[in-house]
Design goal:
13 helices; about 300 residues; binds calcium ion; glycosidase; Nucleoside hydrolase; globular; Inosine/uridine_hydrolase_dom; binds beta-D-ribofuranose; alpha/beta; Ribo_hydro-like; Inosine-uridine Nucleoside N-ribohydrolase, Chain A; purine nucleosidase activity
């Protein structure tokens, strides 16, 4: 299975990269980075460091630094000043490729028509720019799995909006309306995929250097989660998008038209699911509405401790 992961590491992004790289049968063509949780230079350095830690044989290609028309809004309060919590890794410049991330996406999809699964777990700026630059990718990409949105639940930045869509709603609107085969893995399901302290202890004990690294990141992430969300664990948002790309049977989906709010005073980045067809528009997104969280967490733990 050929995958491109579009990321903004970010602690859960780093875990998503680890999950993809450790899963048998996955061919990670490369990572592309976007400004999101942190500015682009940091998300790129972090992605490169994680690739090096995992001994990957692919590179990271830096993409867009900020949203289509807005200022970048970052999330250091959740991921820490470096973006990787308490994890401190050596620089890995040799893992940074010298092609623009948007061109990497376009070229790989054109070179492997109908074979590439594009998993986007940051703001959708790179994906929107790829579509704007070469419309043919819409039909040539196998599918696009997006971690983003909160269709039936509240948001995590505002009551209305989830972070990735909040940061660049105009890009999200372009991608959602593109006609590509899209599955949305939003807070509706990711807030059920929680990694607890017990899981983290097991990862540190049995997961070798990757488990230790995940432990250093999630110790930090868990503290922020307790303050911010009052949940009993930290959400595996981005890893769940990888999980869904690998195994659709983990989730139940519903195809509806999803509108993205770009103009609202309080609702910027809201993802509005038109369940009853009030807008009279063709359904455009497979929205994940239920997840088998036990099966997902078990397979996450198994992959990262084996
Ligand atoms: C999303 O926002 C980011 O902070 C995470 O990396 C994830 O992609 C969750 O809302
Ligand atoms: Ca992310």
């Amino acid at each position: 299975m050929k995958i491109i992961l579009d990321v903004d590491p970010g602690i859960d992004d780093a875990m998503a990269i680890a999950l993809a790289l450790k899963t048998k049968g996955v061919q990670l063509l490369g990572l592309t980075t976007v400004g999101g949780n942190l500015p682009l230079n940091k998300t790129t350095d972090n992605a490169a460091k994680i690739l090096k830690l995992l001994g990957a044989n692919c590179k990271v290609y830096p993409g867009m630094a900020g949203p289509l028309i807005r200022e970048l809004h970052t999330a250091e309060q959740i991921h820490g000043p470096t973006g990787l919590g308490y994890l401190d890794l050596p620089a890995a410049q040799e893992y940074i490729g010298n092609k623009h991330g948007v061109d990497f996406i376009i070229d790989e999809i054109n070179n492997n028509p109908h074979e590439v699964t594009l998993i986007a777990v940051g703001p959708l700026t790179n994906v929107a720019n790829a579509i704007k630059k070469d419309k043919s990718v819409i039909d040539k990409v196998k599918e696009i799995i997006i971690m983003g949105g909160a269709v039936y639940t509240g948001g995590n930045v505002t009551p209305a909006a989830e972070f990735n869509i909040y940061v660049d709603p105009e890009s999200a609107q372009i991608v959602f309306n593109s006609g590509a085969n899209i599955t949305l893995v939003g807070l509706d399901v990711t807030l059920q995929a929680l990694l607890t302290e017990e899981h983290i202890e097991i990862l540190k004990e049995k997961g070798g250097k990757i488990g230790q690294a995940i432990g250093s990141m999630t110790d930090f992430y868990l503290e922020r989660y307790k303050d911010h969300n009052k949940l009993k664990g930290c959400a595996l948002h981005d890893p769940l998008a990888v999980g869904v790309a690998l195994d659709k049977s983990l989730v139940k989906t519903q195809k509806v038209f999803v509108a993205v709010e770009t103009k609202g005073e309080f609702t910027r980045g809201e993802t509005l699911g038109d369940v009853h067809g009030r807008f009279g528009k063709e359904p455009n997104i497979n929205v994940c509405i239920e997840v088998d969280e036990k099966r997902f967490i078990n397979s996450f733990m198994e992959t990262l401790t084996s």
